[in-house]
């Protein structure tokens, strides 16, 4: 995990079993930036969202498949950060897309 500001962290793929520990660490929201089915064995967003709900964490899915999606979805990401309680963990396969989306949303 990498902290980007006082309220936002990015990480690689999380597992549904990670959600209780993330709640214990104080995370109050997650944003999934990985499209479903990107890689074999990847947990689906619906399973992650259900685990987040069970852990008391708000969840939003803003999938980013490539560079064009970053420009198109940066407003959605900024809106999610404004609306969701923090701290927020955004994740994708490695954390890189989430970091680029965060940077784009700041502009």
Automatic annotation (TrEMBL):
UniProt name for this protein: TIGR01244 family phosphatase
Domain Beta-lactamase hydrolase-like protein phosphatase-like: 2-106
Higher taxonomy: Bacteria, Pseudomonadati, Pseudomonadota, Alphaproteobacteria, Sphingomonadales
Annotated SUPFAM superfamilies: (Phosphotyrosine protein) phosphatases II (SSF52799)
Organism field: Alteriqipengyuania abyssalis
Gene3D superfamilies for the chain: Protein tyrosine phosphatase superfamily (3.90.190.10)
Domain of life: Bacteria
């Amino acid at each position: 995990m990498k902290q980007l500001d006082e309220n936002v962290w990015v990480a690689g793929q999380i597992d549904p079993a990670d959600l209780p520990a993330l709640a214990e660490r104080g995370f109050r929201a997650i944003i999934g930036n990985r499209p479903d089915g990107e890689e074999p064995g990847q947990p689906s967003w619906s399973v992650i969202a259900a685990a987040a709900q069970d852990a008391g964490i708000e969840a939003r899915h803003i999938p980013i498949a490539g560079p064009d999606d970053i420009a198109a979805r940066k407003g959605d990401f900024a809106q999610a950060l404004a609306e969701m309680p923090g701290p927020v963990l955004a994740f994708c396969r490695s954390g890189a897309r989430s970091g680029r989306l965060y940077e784009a949303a700041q502009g």
